[in-house]
């Protein structure tokens, strides 16, 4: 599963799909993302709790912090699943950071590729746009959730497409 998400084609198609989903229904965007994060926390935590109690090596018991961390992750995951709107402000900051880091990552990739071959200056436009969108989300001067989510969705679609182009052009 880990190698699946390292595949740039899969990763970019997921970014495009997320972006289109958020553009189509921006009001649900933050809630969908928060609920996915909640499920991602709750499911492995539940499996870890089950694993803790079914661990067979009684001569080497698992440390107690494994259980404590798993219970904490399970509770936070369930909370995110049941009350996603509570986490909206947190998710906006996180989305801004994600976009900012994604833009910076693309710029670094282009700089590295530029050491081996000439890179046209126009290739830097999209990563700069994505970084600016991330900064905009961090400071959210407009303040409207729908506009911010539409900008995030557009940025994710552009990121997915441009990274796919970069992957095919500079591999």
Short synopsis of the structure:
With 171 residues, the protein is mostly helical.
Layout: helices, strands, pairs:
Elements: H1 2-6, H2 8-24, H3 29-54, H4 64-82, H5 88-116, H6 125-139, H7 145-169
Helix pairs in contact: 2-7, 3-4, 5-6, 5-7, 6-7
What does this structure look like?
The chain is 80% helix and 0% strand. It is globular and about 60 Å long. The chain is mostly helical and 171 residues long. It is built from seven helices and no strands. The two termini are 23 Å apart.
- Note poorly predicted spans: none
Number of helices: 7
Q: Please, what is the average pLDDT?
A: 83
Order of helices and strands: HHHHHHH
Radius of gyration: 20 Å
* Beta fraction: under 5%
- Spatial gap, N to C terminus: 23 Å
Task: Note the quaternary state here.
Answer: single chain
The percent range for helix content is over 70%
Largest sheet: none
User: What class do helices, strands and sheet pairing give?
Assistant: mainly alpha
Apparent shape: globular
Instruction: Give the tally of β-strands.
Output: 0
Provide the descriptors you would attach to this structure in a database record.
171 residues; mainly alpha; 7 helices; 80% helix
